[in-house]
Amino acid sequence: MSQSGAGSRAGGPFIVAGLAAEHADQISTVPAAPTGVWFGVVASLRRRWCRVLTDSPDDGVIIERVAALDVGKAEVVCCVRVPGAQAGHRAQEVRTWATMTRALSAMTDWLHGLGVTRVVMEATSDYWKPAFYLLEAAGFETWLVNARDVKHLPGRPKTDKLDAVWLCKVAERQMLRPSFVPPEPVRRLRDLTRYRVDLVAERGREKNRVEKLLEDAGIKVSVVVSDIFGVSGRAMLAALVAGQRDPLVLAGMARSSMRRKIPELGQAFEGRFSEHHAFLLSRMLAHVDALDRDIAAVEDRIEELIVPFADAAARIDEIPGVGRTAARIIIAEIGTDMARFPSAAHLASWAKFSPGTRESAGRSLGTGSTGHGNVYLARALGEAAVGASKTDTFLGERYRRIARRRGKKRAVVALGRSILVIIWHLLNDPDAHFSDLGTDFYDRHRSTQRAVRSHIRQLQALGYQVSVQPAA
Fold it and tell me: What is the pTM of this model?
């Protein structure tokens, strides 16, 4: 079999070793070995191309009875594919259901009647949750998939029905990966930890509004006091709302070490604070107090739900930089069953704490960015990494080593990944506990020759000629 083309040398033949096919342009061809200087190059290419033809594990099994849902706010389009009447044929039916619980229950009965075993749906906003939870409780193997993995082919019509059919065809051929959806006890804990994070963020925004209001009134107390919501600061703000305008009286409410700043505080309270400002400040302080109560109530509820995971939370809390709150957030985001993540590298990749791989034409593309993952988990790991970086531990030393070479931002991400790897091992082995390797770990495991080469390079960079002789 031969074919002439741009890839041949002077129209020379192309040989396909061990293959015979009618359409030579549909298979990888290997140039015949010419004589001369090209022989070695082409022989190398032949060996490399032939290695492409290796066995790949593919059972070719099609899910016999599968359903796919295109979920919207008001309705769900369900496509079911089951074995057809003739061998090798597939039967398909598409129905539209309302998203009310009664309609979804009827859809569940319909799927049971057809013998469906797996139901796949896209993660569309929060609209997927009612159908997912109902089907999960009914005993179906329920998969939630990323919409980017099932994007419809370009150039084709797009409707809810066609999307459901396309998703079903892709799902029956097992070309999808399910997203991680934790079990219900972890989901409940996650709802609370995420709500607490949102409440804390809202409290911070309200405190910023208070500071802006004081700036508008010419009250510069935040210049003198680092936290205007401490005990002394709240007493002064309450007095402003109550009608006190005397700067010396307000400054005299300072307590403890802040009393040294009474002269500066007296100047800071000389402004144009009016009744208008007092009304707004009273509403803002009331909102902050209400948020404090809500956060305390949510934290109490979290302590109740964390009881089944108390041992795991305590062992995660042993890691430098990880506190009680961070340990609860981490468990709420990844759970405690590491069977979902075969290795620590899988967990780090899922959390987007591993560099992305983009390569084309033999060249790496992009900057190796990790991408965007779970923002709540990333925030907790980032705060833990910053805390650990300030400690005299192995993690602190690792941060400082990386920061010197790659910068502080990359060092924080790398340290967050290290913490996540430690967490995987702690959760994967119930008997494991954290043990610090010490700040001298790298020195103890560093090669002597490597250290010598490093010192020689440093001296050469300073303009010295170095000759090393072993000691007698």
Answer: 0.77
Do the beta carbons of residue 120 and residue 66 sit within 8 Å? yes
Q: Which residues contact 175 (CB under 8 A, 6 or more apart)?
A: none
Residue 416: the pLDDT is 93
Q: Which range, of 23-27, 43-47, 233-237, 305-309, averages the lowest pLDDT?
A: 23-27
Contacts of 365 by beta carbon, 8 Å cutoff, 6+ apart: 358, 359
Secondary structure class of 472 (helix, strand, coil): coil
* HEC per residue, the chain: CCCCCCCCCCCCCEECCCCCCCCHHHCCCEECCCCCCHHHHHHHHHHHHHCCCCCCCCCCCCCCCEEEEEECCCEEEEEEEEECCCCCCEEEEEEEEECCHHHHHHHHHHHHHCCCCEEEEECCCCCHHHHHHHHHHCCCEEEEECHHHHCCCCCCCCCHHHHHHHHHHHHHCCCCCCCCCCCHHHHHHHHHHHHHHHHHHHHHHHHHHHHHHHHHCCCCHHHHCCCCCCHHHHHHHHHHHHCCCCHHHHHCCCCHHHHHHHHHHHHHCCCCCCHHHHHHHHHHHHHHHHHHHHHHHHHHHHHHHCHHHHHHHHHHCCCCCCCHHHHHHHHHHHCCCHHHCCCHHHHHHHCCCCCCCCEECCEECCCCCCCCCCHHHHHHHHHHHHHHHCCCCHHHHHHHHHHHHHCHHHHHHHHHHHHHHHHHHHHHCCCCCCCCCCCCHHHHCCCHHHHHHHHHHHHHHCCCCCCCCCCC
Residue (of 136, 107, 134, 124) closest to 71 by Cα position: 124
**371 in Cβ contact with 352 (< 8 Å):** yes
On the CB side of 339, CA atoms within 13 Å amount to 3
Secondary structure of 181-227 in HEC code, one letter for each residue? CCCHHHHHHHHHHHHHHHHHHHHHHHHHHHHHHHHHCCCCHHHHCCC
Question: Tokens 């705060």 identify what position?
Answer: 383
Distance from the Cα of residue 159 to its chain's centroid:
31
Q: pLDDT tens, 132-182? A: 999 999 989 899 988 777 776 666 778 888 888 888 888 888 888 888 888
Q: What is the pLDDT of residues 293-317, one digit of tens each?
A: 999 999 999 999 999 999 999 999 9
String of DSSP letters for 83-114: E-SSTT-EEEEEEEEESSHHHHHHHHHHHHHT
Query: Rounded to whole angstroms, how far apart are CA atoms 111 and 140?
Result: 9
